[in-house]
Amino acid sequence: MNAEVPHTAAIEVVALTKRYGEGKPAVDGINLRIASGSYCCLLGPSGCGKSTTLRMIAGHESVSSGDVLLENRNITNLPAAERGTAMMFQSFALFPHLNALDNVAFSLKMKGVGKAERQAKAQNLLERVAMGHLAARKPGELSGGQQQRVALARALITEPRALLLDEPLSALDPFLRIQMRAELRRWQKELGLTFIHVTHSQEEAMALADTMVVMNHGVIEQMGSPHEIYNRPVNEFVARFMGGHNVIDTPAGKIGVRTDQMQVVPADVAVPEGFASKAAVVTDVEYQGTYVLLGVQNPQAAHNANATAEASVMLSEEQFGKRPFVVGESVQLAWSPSVAHSLQ
């Protein structure tokens, strides 16, 4: 399923396909429009085609068929340096023998820009990302977060119309990752550039993106705002991949219900009027700090040692404290039809 956003598109891909040999395409005829000045995250499991799509937009991977347009200009067959895009790699790819200033200025040096001019521009960008005071340091003398700032400044010195980021936070520790994603979002807003960011992290994408593009097996499963995709996944794959949802089989088909909108009712207590319900057995109780996560399974499968939880229910500490549940207890899994939506 491909979707579009009704705004001026900075980047548009049309029937974009990438084949390696005779097998199934790595990217299979996708159509995608990314609004100018927006932050777009491509996400999905390993091998879904997200990084291949980014590399084709960047010009680092050839296109088997289809087109890539930047602000209505067809850039499909242009070299990477002539596209008007810049790439920021997962490894940062800084030159270890050059200091931060010369790393940032390197692409201008290759274009023949004079030393004074290129270093002035590089220093200005380092100041912008709070690295001006460390311009003389080499990459080995910088922390991961500092190296990322240098890599960002180096990408920006070419004055791209779109910045492409290939899992730029994955090499950082969890605390720094949260700090740096906030900085990326701030820089994107300040610069007014279009950012296209590949990640496998649902949390990262929801924190950063104006638009999320969920991919699987080389196709786009769903595109929309983080709120839309989290609250109304279109199919079982998106619901399970995004997490926080239960996929329930009913006579009318599969439905999705958020874990925090499900209820667990003791077996001897009536479910609320109008609620749908299923018999279940508690298989897991996990204390998560501010809430308790219950895993439940249908009674027939609950005694199978290899069974995984059929559904999860998030209860507040207060709810669980008033009525604790224990593993092996028979319960009813209940939900209001108003919080359920059908899945393709």
Report on the structure:
This protein is of the alpha+beta class. The chain folds into two domains: 9-237, P-loop containing nucleotide triphosphate hydrolases (Rossmann fold, 3-Layer(aba) Sandwich); 247-342, RNA polymerase II/Efflux pump adaptor protein, barrel-sandwich hybrid domain (OB fold (Dihydrolipoamide Acetyltransferase, E2P)). It contains ten helices and 18 strands. The strands form four sheets. A six-stranded mixed β-sheet has the order 6-7-8-3-9-10, with helices on both faces. It has a five-stranded antiparallel β-sheet with strand order 13-17-14-15-16. Helix 2 crosses helix 3 (115-128) and helix 3 (115-128) packs across helix 4 (144-156). The longest helix has 18 residues, at 174-191. It is elongated, with a radius of gyration of 24 Å. The N and C termini lie close together (11 Å).
Question: What distinguishing features does this structure have?
Answer:
344 residues, single chain, disordered N terminus, 2 domains, 18 strands, Rossmann fold, OB fold (Dihydrolipoamide Acetyltransferase, E2P), 5-stranded antiparallel sheet, 10 helices, 31% strand, 6-stranded mixed sheet, alpha+beta
Give a brief outline of the structure.
This protein is α+β, with helices and mostly antiparallel strands. It contains ten helices and 18 strands. It has helices at 50-58, 100-110, 115-128, 144-156, 174-191, 202-208, 226-231, 236-242, 299-302, 317-322, and strands at 9-18, 27-35, 39-43, 65-70, 73-74, 85-88, 162-166, 194-199, 211-216, 219-224, 245-250, 253-258, 263-266, 276-287, 291-297, 311-316, 330-335, 341-342.
